[in-house]
Amino acid sequence: MNEAAARQATNHPDLPPFFQLVALESTESTSNEVEVRAQAGASEGLLVWARQQTKGRGRQGRHWESPSGNLYCSLLLRPEVETAKAAELGFVAGVAVRDCVASLFSKEQTVRCKWPNDILVGQSKIAGILLEATVQERGTRVIVGIGVNLVNHPLETSYPATDLRSQGAATADPARVLERLAGSLLRWREVWLTEGFGAIRRTWLEHAAGLGEDISVRLPDQTLVGKFESIDERGALELHLPGGEMHIVTAGDVFLNQPAMKTSG
């Protein structure tokens, strides 16, 4: 094997057979790339990985900064379930990404799931997940977009951010992290298929940021402050308001022990 071939082999991730990897140097959005290929008939397990994105996006149409060096990937799933059930895959991905990130740190590092789709190291965001589902004749087409800050992170965001390298992770190489992430996604998908959402929910709550604490939740028309009680059987956040009412939040931005801030990132 010559030097160039050896370098390419080192940089190419070794993934389980379930995944069909498409590796790109650059793309507008890995989720957009999966969408195009899914419409053309791509099978479940398609995984698009890009070194950088020119139009990466997060929840609610927000821009996701995507410079070279971090991990950007999107996975195609085709579960034979209704869209409401498919939404559980956001939490499946959440526990999978959390496990992947946690495996790169010593036991002293705290890695938590922040509702609905972020992963924190300490008090700072290190990864985010974007779930997009489309109803089809048989089941639902789901695209799971994942971004993990490996060697850099945005500064001007609505929530503090960090990256693996600055936190002293064992590796921040995209190919090696993708290997761990793929294995974790496959394991937790299997748990979901065999044991149901209850097992995913229990694990997610074990690592939930702000559980049992006062948080603020920014909604389109107001910001609520209350105690984060739990997530229900659908994944909605249960917020215990000061007056005693239990408010069920299906979509919103959570801030831990701080007021809602500006909307970016």
Please describe what this structure looks like.
The chain contains 6 helices and 12 strands. 26% of the residues lie in helices and 29% in strands. α4 packs across α5 and α5 crosses α6. A hairpin with a 5-residue loop joins β10 and β11 (246-249). It has helices at 3-11, 30-39, 83-86, 89-102, 174-195, 197-206, and strands at 20-27, 46-53, 71-77, 111-114, 118-121, 124-135, 140-148, 214-218, 223-231, 237-240, 246-249, 253-256. The strands form 2 sheets. Strands 1-2-3-7-6-5-4 form a 7-stranded mixed sheet, with helices on both faces. It has 265 residues and is an alpha+beta fold. The protein folds into 2 domains: 3-206, Bira Bifunctional Protein, Domain 2 (BirA Bifunctional Protein, domain 2); 214-256, SH3 type barrels (Roll), CATH 2.30.30.100.
